[in-house]
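Slide 14.
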Amino acid sequence: MEVSPGIGVGMRHTGPMVEKGWTFSEREFYLSEFRGRTLGIALAEFPSGSFDGLDSVIAELAKNGTRCVVVSPIRELLEAVVSTVIVPERETGWVGGLWRNLRDEMSVGLWVVPETSESGGAPKTFAASCGAIVSELRLAKLVWIDGRGSLRDASGQRISLLDHSDLSGSGETSRAMALDSPADKELVGEIRDLLEGGIASVNICSLAGLADELFTYAGSGTLLTRNRYLEVRRLGVDDFDAATDLIARGVEEGFLTPRSEAQIERTLGNAFGVFVEGRFLAGVGALMDYAANGAAEIVSLYTVTRFAGEGVGGHLVGFAVERAQAAGYAQIFACTTSSRVEKFFVREGFALVGGDSIPDEKWMNYPPDRRERVRCLSRALD
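Slide 15: predicted structure.
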């Protein structure tokens, strides 16, 4: 996994990274979130490749205790994916029948026959019809699968996240206005209606990227959410597994210095994170105190690539600064061997300082070779 903005802040090293207990699984983390729930999967068009990826995901979700409602305007497509296909009726009965079949089979298809609008005008789009069904079923999540794979901005870069405030804005300040194509803008407008209708989140992805979108931090497509998706808070014990996984990745990729098990445990006790939708960890950091010197250090700062454009690193630093100020510290600092990380901290109001400006305790048992390369950045606090 890549990181963004590529932050890995220097940490004191007194022993090797401990392998024991490092069994956190991204996939299991997401599966636990989906367990006991029903997900909607919308297939607007025939995929260019095979159905193997979709079949395997639906099977894995069923084994996990997660039910799937597959919605499409193409009956042949549904029959290739699920055993039972239901035609929704406005009047009655179909929701109860759907529930009965889901209980027995874990996945059911809904054939959405295009219908005219109530005013007798042009037929409703598939997205509008699909939205009405998903809203009636009160599903928390819809996965929209089509060939685009994700939304793209004007430069062709994937847009990983949009929330309702992004979709509802206008002019240059709206991220939705930077979408690459009119078709994307039309789809986003329809998804905005779904979010306003009560759906908590919609994922747009390709069939090939479905597993990555559902089961990994990095994802493959675009996540659209009803509520503001970023929250910064102290980590609780239930967050430690995900946090240790991110820290381990940072070490593996060379952004973070290896630490002993005892040091990792101390770090976790002082750690905080940025969460997406209140659950999914997008980045971590910790604040270590040097109370005798009136200083605090930001350590273990690591963010996930998917959230690169969301200012996750800045949110983490801002939270650390607020905590340090509240605790009465006069100085907050960070150490790194990366010029990119140095530039990041400068943008956050830090200034490059000499090692003699950092508490002497920081350098006890510090690797000599790293000491020669490390850059120190400091920010005075009010």
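Speaker note: Confidence is low (pLDDT under 50) at residues 1-23.
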